[in-house]
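ugh finaly. both done.
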Amino acid sequence: MKKTFILLLMSVFCCIAFGAFAQNNQPKNLQKSKNNPAGYRDADGHEMIFNIKDSKDTLVYLVIHYNDKLILKDSVKPVSKGKFVFKGTDRYDDGMYSLVSMDKKLYLNFILDNNQHFTYNLDTTMNVDNFSVVNSPENAEMLRFQKKTAQASKDANEWSKKRKEFEDAGNTDSANVYKEKLTNINDEMTAFIDDLIARNPDFLFSKMQKSYMNIDIPEYKKEDGEPDYQKQAAYYRLHYWDNFDLGDHRFIYIPSFDPKMKDYFLKLIYHQEADTINKYIDLFLKKTEKDTFMYHYCTDWLSYQFETSKVIGHDAVFYHIAKTNQLAGKCYWLDEDVLAKYQKRTARLEPILIGKIAPELLIPDTTLNDDMRAWHSSYRMSKPYTILWFYDPDCPTCKKESKKLREVYDSLETIGKRNFDVYAIANDADIDRWKKYVKENNYPWLQVGGNKGNLDYLEYFNIYEMGNPAMFIMDNKDHRIILNKRIEMSSIPQFLEEYEKIEEAKRKGE
């Protein structure tokens, strides 16, 4: 009854007292070892026996966590009352699995590793003290942790209540006794986990426990003795993955990995400058390269996140990922068609990335039949910044956004603070319609177009793909692109103000 599809379960990965104090694949050729005492080979497949006391299930499910989904790997009927056997000639992917009842209730979390021949005894009460496992050292270690954690949690709850009772009664001495007990139990659990990791560092469960540990951040100080939070934050970003073995793809199959990826890349470094994000991505991917499947997963995940991002500058991150990975010959799994798409995409992005020098545009205005004075250069503008505004006179969104741009333009002009010019480029082969639009709207900025120019500006600025309207802003000191996405028109003054602050800080070396 082998199958693979999404199984929707509610809170199926709520582990039994799990983490209370912390908190495709290419099968390997196996040899006898501490982790694989029987020396099972790939050809030995799997045989996992689950004896569930008092179970009334007529079917149980085997599921694995992948990305942010739960994948159903198999399901079996009982061979006898309460006895369920998963048996086959293939091996499952190594990782963390769950055994789930027919009514979607979690029975058990367990590890599948080199040895996929074992027996697990449990019951329907979910009391781990009644559980046992035979012939699986890693699951025995995991169960030992669960039992230890369950008892510590029970003691901690009891002692917390006692402490509060004595505090409420004003008995400080007795309250402090239970406070110390709570401290001791936490220290004891920490030592227990440290020992677990030290004794079996290659167990996936050990690596999981290590990954839950906090990063110790040095107490950086400024010259005046105040905490240097910037240095602390930089250290945290750099060492975020220290407790993860990123060269072990089994992390993909545990529930905590996907949230950690999202927390780091979509929150912690998401709004850094592109060069900074690229630095951290390079460091991260370098650590995954020794495990092909892990590298494959992480490269694809990051490429998707930054290619589809709407954040300004993230196109440069996607460009960097593609150039240093997919187009650098590292992603052997990509066929020629997919690689060609990456090549085409990056070629279109490269000239219009933030920081690139925009080419000089020479495009005529509506007086197309006049002499050369009707052609206008995008470089010969008087203000510090130039907005390249690509539009279609027949586009409703273009019309609406052009009116909003005029409101900003006029309001700043009125108070004498307009620091940009507009070089409006009409994408319309119907010259008469374009002229009519220009005459009716009488915008106070330069209007050029008619699908003529010194270069194919629609191709160069990727307007064929982006569509109209499109906005670019140039800094007229060196004609570099400082914005390559359309933003709210009302945000333009703030954007330019923030840009100038950042540039000033760079000049001062801050």
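ok and the 2nd:
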Amino acid sequence: MRRPRPVVPGPGQESVWDYPRPPRVERVDDRVTIRLGGGLIADTRDAVRVLETSHPPVYYLPMDAFVAGALVDAPGSSFCEFKGAARYLDVRGGGEVAAGAAWNYPHPSAGFEALTERVAVYAGPMDRCTVGDEVVAPQPGGFYGGWVTSSVVGPFKGGPGSLGW
């Protein structure tokens, strides 16, 4: 399958097609929040994002940015060729449970040590996730966990027909 034609970024935007492979981890200056079940379950100015070709950024928050009880071990695991072995977590807030909606790398691979004690959350099952003052949209499809904001342009991997990118 051919690589799709990237959208040309406008002022203040970046193309996910300019992101590297292997991915890069970078600090985020904006406030990042997550709401579930009507309540604020995570709030931090200490997030990092992972940038990988064709994917919107995945935001990783410190585990201690979540309210007590918001993250609970869940069944399942996966392996990323770059970051290593991931475990899954249920996300809880306001009486709601988003099963397996978060993951982290307890012992990330070399080069990804910044992800230690951090967790990423799928935006789709949450009430609302924000970066700065902007509400994010989930990455298309159900597998990848990127957060789409107005500052990134695609097309993004995850939607129909993107498996071979």
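summary for the 2nd one i guess: The chain has a mean pLDDT of 96.
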